[in-house]
Write a structure and sequence with these properties.
This protein is of the alpha/beta class. The chain is built from 15 helices and 13 strands. A 7-stranded mixed sheet has the order 8-7-13-12-11-10-9. Strands 3-2-1-4-6-5 form a 6-stranded mixed sheet. The chain binds iron/sulfur cluster. Iron/sulfur cluster binds next to helix 8. Its main location: cytoplasm.
């Protein structure tokens, strides 16, 4: 499935705007789903409408309607690289049986995958970022090419969708058409049976809402059909839908959202803050406070997951000298601009203990401190101070050319004469 090169088209929703979104929704409140879709295609935005389909459990119903109304309507499938093989087979089945003529796969940028998810496990630590690079980012240039989008969302699916209308006007002046907004679970089953539609191969196994394999689980009887998506996480949408006020539900922009600066860019942070009560044997991708590590040392050492260490002022890095190789990342807390103890910790890690992993600064990380932090071996920064973030993005950091306390052998201490300078 190749991605087509389409010329941008003007947004053609004058009619919708003139009618008023409320009036239009009132007119179509009682209309059946195919009628809504037919009107959208013929009158509201003719030739300027496309659909993104997950080819999940309910997708056949809407795609069957699309095939009846306009089989050449562009259908986009977010090929995240994380789908069940059954879903990929289902794409081919529906394409063939319905005669859909215009299906395209949208793939994530390989550079984004390499940079943000080289091990393919970002979904586990930061699903928002995983959805961002696999869905939101690749879809953005495609959405710009159309005046409107058809979605398969339904009111009954989640509390958040409980008032979903047939037509939505988005903040960027595009139209979302939701022909199935009023469909119930029973309506879906009835439509499927009436038209003898092929079922997703996993539906009978208890998967009621199907997305990427790592983030989809079986739903128990009586559960919300989407309860199996991102189970256990406070996440309901993948960020590509629009809310009712017209704004994009989760307009996630990596550069704005991430606070970890590493290798010249703000990137997704696999680590989370330590929470009290976390089981030392099951902790993963957290910076364990040094005293907590010492109190449960045996359990942490037996824990197979990636761990970090949090060093606060007053903690002695010497106490964990033998275990430093256990940590993928060591976070040094700088509680205030004037507290310089973190610099000494960083130098001990690099110079005495030859620690070669990530050393990150967090806390009061400000623009003027960063050159000094780097000199001491800190190679990652957690930055929330907005002017400092901008300075990093624009590569505007102060230069430091004189030193009272030189680091290594290349820095020259202030006030010494050439023949007295250290050479080793
Ligand atoms: S649904 Fe899961 S695997 Fe798929 S893009 Fe989102 S977080 Fe990643």
């Amino acid at each position: 499935m190749a991605m087509p090169k389409l010329a941008p088209v003007p947004v053609a929703n004058d009619k919708l705007r003139a009618l008023g979104i409320l009036a239009l929704n009132g007119m179509f409140d009682e209309m059946d789903a195919v009628g809504v879709l037919r009107y959208a295609v013929s009158d509201v935005i003719p030739g300027d409408l496309a659909i993104v389909s997950s080819f999940g459990a309910d997708s056949a119903v809407l795609l069957h309607m699309v095939a009846q109304v306009d089989p050449s309507m562009p259908v986009y499938f977010l090929e995240t690289g994380k789908h069940f093989p059954e879903t990929l087979a289902y794409v081919e089945t529906l394409k063939r049986q319905f005669g859909l003529l215009n299906i395209h796969g949208i793939h994530p940028d390989p550079a984004d995958i390499k940079r943000f998810d080289p091990n393919g496990d970002l979904w586990e630590t930061d699903p928002d970022s995983c959805c961002h690079i696999r869905k939101t980012e690749p879809l953005e240039p495609i959405t710009e090419q159309y005046g409107g989008w058809v979605t398969g969302r339904k009111r009954y699916q989640t509390k958040e969708r409980g008032v979903l209308p047939h037509f939505e006007l988005t903040s960027d002046d595009r139209i979302k058409v939701n022909p199935l907004a009023y469909f119930t679970d029973a309506d879906v089953v009835e439509y499927r049976q009436k038209h003898n539609l092929p079922e997703h191969p996993l539906y009978a196994k208890g998967y009621k809402s199907i997305g990427c394999a790592p983030c989809t689980s079986v739903v128990a009887e009586g559960e919300d059909p989407r309860a199996g998506r991102w189970r256990g996480l406070n996440k309901k949408e993948c960020g590509i839908h629009y809310d009712f006020s017209g704004a994009i539900a989760n307009p996630m922009k990596a550069a704005n959202r991430h606070t970890l600066w590493k290798d010249g860019a703000f990137i997704a942070d696999p680590f989370k803050a330590w929470e009290e009560g976390t089981n030392p044997s099951e902790a993963r991708y957290v910076h364990v406070p040094l005293p907590v590590f010492l109190a449960h040392r045996a359990e942490f050492l037996a824990n197979p997951h990636p761990l970090g260490l949090l060093v606060s002022p007053g903690d002695k890095i010497e106490d964990v000298a033998d275990d430093l190789s256990r940590f993928a990342s060591i976070a040094i807390l700088f509680p205030s601009f004037t507290d310089g103890r973190g610099y000494s910790t960083a130098r001990l890690l690099v110079e005495r203990y030859k620690y070669a992993g990530e050393i990150r600064a967090l806390g009061d990380v400000l623009q003027d401190q960063i050159p000094h932090m780097r000199r001491c071996g800190i190679n990652a920064l957690v930055v929330t101070h907005e002017p400092t973030r901008q300075a990093l993005i624009e590569n505007r950091l102060p230069e430091v050319s004189v030193f009272y306390q030189p680091v290594g052998v290349t820095e020259i201490p202030l006030g010494t004469r050439p023949f007295l300078r250290r050479v080793s």
